[in-house]
Amino acid sequence: MEATKKKNLRSGYTTGACATAAVQAAMITLLTGEKANETTIYIPAGEYVPFTIQYGDISENQVTTGTVKDGGDDPDATHGALIQASVSFSDSSSITIDGGRGVGRVTKSGLPISIGEAAINPVPRQMIQEVAQQLLETYKVNKGVHIVISVPDGEEIAKRTLNGRLGIVGGISILGTRGIVVPFSNEAYTASITLALQVARSAGCDTVAITTGGRSEKYAMKQYSYLPEVAFIEMGDFIGYTLHECKKLGVKSVKLVGMMGKLSKVAQGKMMVHAHTESIDFSFLAQLAMEAGATEKLTKAISQANTASQVGEWMEREVGQRFFDSLCYSCCKQSFEEISGGLNIETSVYTLNGQLLGRASIND
What we know:
Number of strands: 18
Helix content: 25-40%
Structural class: alpha/beta
Strand order of the largest sheet: 4-5-6-10-7
Oligomer: single chain
Order of helices and strands: EHEEEEEEEEHEHHEEEHEHEHEHHHHHEE
């Protein structure tokens, strides 16, 4: 029987593209008095894309429009959010862009936006600026405009993002470098890791704690309570990428914290640890267990195990810390080799309920 084909994932559009579309529609109405219930913009990815427009308040000098963000099949916190633009004529001849309700403000350095400004990233700002300028020239209007981007539910949505950690308060960021959201995009996640590291370095952190998820981050925060919150970086599956970025950005010491499953892969030298791309080598864990003093019977059982957590339970009960320290040392060694040195690396492995099983370190 022919294998079932994987479902094609649908791309979506960034908050920056949505904001630009809303601005274009509002500008058209402000300049012509006519509504644009659908508008098409050109995005940096190199294509024209249409957006359905909703209208809010309209007056002679100000128009508010919006469009609902379609993130496609990408698991994005902003999917379904209403992205609004209010455009009004100004006394000056310039185009000014600001954030309103639900768009965050920058409070920490290290971001591509100055402290105090609305969290509208450079590419979306440029897209908005170009659309507004083009329309003013097309309709031969010698006036300036003031543009305010808002997200009514932005403050609530921001609670499901890392904005607070990055020093963006009061709402979400208006983001996007290509205008398009690629489902499950590695690029989007790695960009957020780099941004978080830049903020940490800007805050003076030369030691960071990198974690594989929210639960391991909670345990890392308890273990390394002397570090500021900004020093904790949730990297997901991107171990190798994060280590390279740490070295590139001048981090001196890395605390790697995780659980058996993903750290078992790191210990084998696998630096992308997604469950669908990398499997656990149980023969490797069996060898490690034997060297830590496991019986022949237990070693054989480990080589045939189903999950790393199952191995962890056996080893915790039968052998103890020596095995986990050895696992952590292998993680340090493989991480150190991945980046050709240059960092002090410490690894800690935890159970799901927060028990520290083992730790080890390598210093450059």
